[in-house]
Amino acid sequence: MQQSKPHLPVLLCSELPQGDLQTLLSAYDMQIELVEDMQAIPGSFWGESEAGLIDNRLLIRQDTPVHSALHEACHYICMDQSRRAGLHTDAGGDYDEENGVCYLQILLADELEGMDAQRMMDDMDSWGYSFRLGSAAQWFKSDAEDAAKWLIQHGLLNSEGRPSWQLRK
């Protein structure tokens, strides 16, 4: 019988080195706005500690999970300019874009000290992201070619499959 590995609590933004997330997202002209503990996060689609989006601002608290912050940031990166212009709370997007968002957040996790792609995928599973192969890692390894192609098509990944550090045009 295969034993499943225990899930760690999801990594929180407060556990990242100070300024790392802002440095990463500044490449995309995003600003991080820190919300006081226990206050509602403006622009949060999911509520509670989940990240919010308003214009080019990613709103987080210290207890916001890193996977939530990167997921919402990747929505901003992956949406077209017309949707970005009126962005408030609901990033919208279609199935292909959502897959691109998930794929890109896994890649960007490798750019943060204290986080990496595997930890991101584990945190995604812990939170409840749903993939038809059962886990984020299985999806990323075996079923995400269409997401990578979509990101390349929209100039968000280069030909080597690495982030281009550009917004979708």
How would you characterize this protein structure?
With 169 residues, this protein is mainly alpha-helical. It has one domain (13-153). It is built from seven helices and three strands. The chain has helices at 20-26, 66-78, 81-85, 95-109, 117-127, 136-142, 145-153; strands at 31-34, 52-54, 57-60. A three-stranded mixed β-sheet has the order 1-3-2, with helices on one face.
* Mean pLDDT rating: 93
H/I helix tally:
7
| Tally of strands | 3
Helix/strand order: HEEEHHHHHH
Going by helix content, strand content and strand pairing, the class is mainly alpha
Q: Which value, in Å, is the CA radius of gyration?
A: 15 Å
Features:
169 residues, 3 strands, mainly alpha
In terms of topology, how is this protein built?
Layout: H1 20-26, E1 31-34, E2 52-54, E3 57-60, H2 66-78, H3 81-85, H4 95-109, H5 117-127, H6 136-142, H7 145-153
Parallel strand pairs: 1-3
Antiparallel strand pairs: 2-3
Helix pairs in contact: 2-4, 4-5, 4-7
Quick gist of this model?
This protein is mainly α. The chain is built from seven helices and three strands; from the N terminus they run αβββαααααα.
